[in-house]
Amino acid sequence: MIFNVIILCLYLPVIKLSDVWKSYKIGETKIDVLKGVNLRVVPGEMVGIFGPSGSGKTTLLNIISTLDFADKGFVEIMENEISPEKFTYDKLAEFRRKHIAIIFQSHNLMPEMNAFENVYFPLLLKGYSPKRAKKRAEDVLEAVEIGKDKMFKNIQLLSGGERQRVAVARALAMDVDIFVCDEPTSELDRKNAMNLMHIMNNLRVIGKTFVIATHDERLLEFFTSVYRLEDGILIRMEKKEV
Hints:
Rossmann fold, 10 strands
């Protein structure tokens, strides 16, 4: 009986979306960006979401990462219903710090800081001691091949690909359950893209969960499941159909 309970817990979804809708208004025009999306993700999955630009991928990631609320439908993250009735924005920020790390397509790094500081200070905010945060930041930056020669350079002196790797390092440094990634390899060459995916896959194997929106078909081999989002509708695909 105990064994069965353990197995069941392993497969409880960490992300559950049921009939999720999201719309925006442009002037007097209402645009449905997500139309009845359903998604169930269990621990240790790496989900790839493909789709053309403007198909709603970023909106979907914003809802999964709790940056935005759905208009209709049910959203559950880490067994918590995510809705304005259940969470204020302040409480959601606290929830994200504990459970979710986000890799933004636009990097969202602090331009006045160097690469090390962009990874180090979020760890302090999470409660790490200065000594532990320093080692963690250095280790993760080196894992994405940002060495000591670039670690202490201002972000604005790094290339686009290097800034992307710093943004990835900042997210991977956080000890969280779910990683939400928007085009994480868009500025990376094959070597760095594959290095990043192997790091992510090693975390997936120990139970971390990834949801990745991408156009990059090089990543297909790493995904445990693949979806296509088009015209606001999410459909599960076979890898060969992407």
